[in-house]
């Protein structure tokens, strides 16, 4: 009887886990089956300084950001700079349209053009400049005021600054900083929050913008970039 109860418990847990996993899977539908004005545009552009490529991922969803992901049925399609993007999919993400390009080659102006099933077109223009640290930082840094020159920013922009060490009890630095003319300042007060030894700098730049030319449902264009550096902090 104990064995049966144990087996029943295992079976119940497996069913519950299966249900949770299924809930995490993204649904996939066909764009031809929905009202074209209810298609939500979900665009994401991501890049990392230590990776030589930038990724543009486009998704079309039914009725909002959490809706069913849509496979575009002919004649509906999406292009980047006039080149048709083919669909791909995963269980977690659903269907998406993705382009991966070398950062240097991708620098400049671009146009995403979506064509719905009624052959109505929507163009989204954007530009890309690689985000990163302009000059190499030394491997060893003292506790003096430090100015870090960044690329890929507006004259006045905002960057999330994370500074951490290897001491568990230290909180480090975690703030959104105003960057003027590409100059990020790390102050002496910032260094006081960190112990001597290995220190890790993580800079994150994110913009979450509304789609400028979309359907009645609208959309978002998220741009997310980061730069990282490890060094030794000394007195």
Descriptive overview:
The structure is a single chain. With about 240 residues, the protein is mostly beta strands. It has two domains: about 30-130, Immunoglobulin-like; about 130-235, Immunoglobulin-like (Sandwich). Helix content is about 15%, strand content about 50%. The chain is built from three helices and 18 strands. It has helices spanning about 1-25, 105, 190; strands at about 30, 40-50, 55-60, 70, 75-80, 85, 85-90, 95-100, 110-115, 120-130, 130-135, 140, 145-150, 155-165, 175-180, 185, 195-210, 220-235. The strands form four sheets. Strands 2, 3, 7, 8, 12, 14, 15, 17 and 18 form a nine-stranded mixed sheet that branches. Strands 6-5-9-10 form a four-stranded antiparallel sheet, with no helix packed on it. β2 and β3 form a beta hairpin. The N and C termini lie far apart (about 70 Å).
Sum up the structure in keywords.
mainly beta; disordered N terminus; 18 strands; nine-stranded mixed β-sheet; Immunoglobulin-like; 3 helices; 235 residues; four-stranded antiparallel β-sheet
Secondary structure elements and pairings:
Elements lengths: L1 H23 L3 E3 L8 E10 L4 E10 L6 E3 L5 E4 L2 E2 L2 E4 L3 E9 H4 L1 E8 L5 E8 L3 E2 L6 E2 L4 E6 L4 E10 L7 E8 L2 E4 L1 H4 L5 E14 L8 E15 L2
């Amino acid at each position: 009887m104990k064995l049966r109860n144990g087996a029943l418990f295992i079976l119940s847990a497996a069913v519950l886990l299966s249900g949770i996993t299924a809930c995490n899977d993204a649904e996939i539908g066909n764009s031809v089956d929905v009202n074209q004005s209810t298609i939500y545009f979900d665009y994401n552009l991501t890049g990392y300084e230590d990776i030589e490529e930038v990724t543009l991922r486009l998704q079309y969803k039914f009725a909002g950001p959490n809706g069913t992901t849509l496979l575009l049925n002919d004649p509906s399609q999406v292009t980047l700079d006039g080149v048709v993007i083919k669909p791909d999919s995963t269980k977690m993400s659903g269907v998406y349209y993705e382009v991966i390009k070398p950062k240097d080659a991708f620098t400049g102006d671009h146009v995403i053009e979506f064509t719905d099933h009624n052959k109505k077109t929507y163009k989204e223009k954007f530009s890309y400049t690689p985000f990163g640290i302009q000059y190499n930082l030394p491997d060893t840094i003292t506790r003096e005021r430090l100015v870090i020159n960044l690329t890929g920013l507006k004259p006045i922009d905002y960057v999330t600054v994370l500074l951490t060490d290897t001491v568990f009890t230290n909180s480090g630095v975690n703030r959104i900083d105003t960057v003027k003319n590409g100059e990020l300042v790390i102050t002496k007060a910032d260094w006081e929050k960190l112990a001597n030894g290995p220190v890790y700098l993580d800079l994150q730049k994110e913009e979450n913008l509304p789609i400028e030319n979309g359907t009645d449902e609208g959309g978002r264009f998220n741009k997310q970039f980061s730069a990282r550096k490890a060094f030794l902090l000394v007195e």
